[in-house]
Amino acid sequence: MAAQQLEIDDTTPFDNLDDRQVEFGGHVDGEAYQFAVQYSVLEALSGSQPDGDAEDRFRRYRAAIEYAALAALAKGPDRPIIVISENDLDREDQA
């Protein structure tokens, strides 16, 4: 069985300043999901807090975010939005 892959829709990333997360849509195994990556994840990956550049950081760390999104999805795909937290990061991806 092939490993799951997330295909991010590049037209969907949106910096939700109020909730301090970048929201985006994607498909896993043909199913559509909505995701949100918390600013704390972007900070963990980059070493500093997002300051008006959250969407740029999202693009820069896309591979690590895709991996973390799959980890978050595995915890329960039935949620309306899959929130990616620091707990979903593989610590090796932060190096």
Characterise this structure.
The protein is 29% helix and 26% strand. The protein has 3 helices and 5 strands. It has helices at residues 39-46, 54-60, 62-74; strands spanning 6-8, 14-16, 21-28, 31-38, 82-84. Strand 2 and strand 3 form a beta hairpin. The N and C termini lie far apart (29 Å). The mean pLDDT is 91.
What class would the helix/strand composition place it in? alpha+beta
Please summarize the sheet with the most strands: 5 strands, mixed
Q: Determine the N-to-C terminus distance.
A: 29 Å
Q: How many E strands?
A: 5
Keywords, separated by commas or semicolons:
95 residues; alpha+beta; five-stranded mixed β-sheet; 3 helices; 5 strands; 29% helix
Layout of SSEs?
Layout: E1 6-8, E2 14-16, E3 21-28, E4 31-38, H1 39-46, H2 54-60, H3 62-74, E5 82-84
Parallel strand pairs: 4-5
Antiparallel strand pairs: 1-3, 2-3, 3-4
Describe, in short, the structure shown:
The protein is of the alpha+beta class and about 100 residues long.
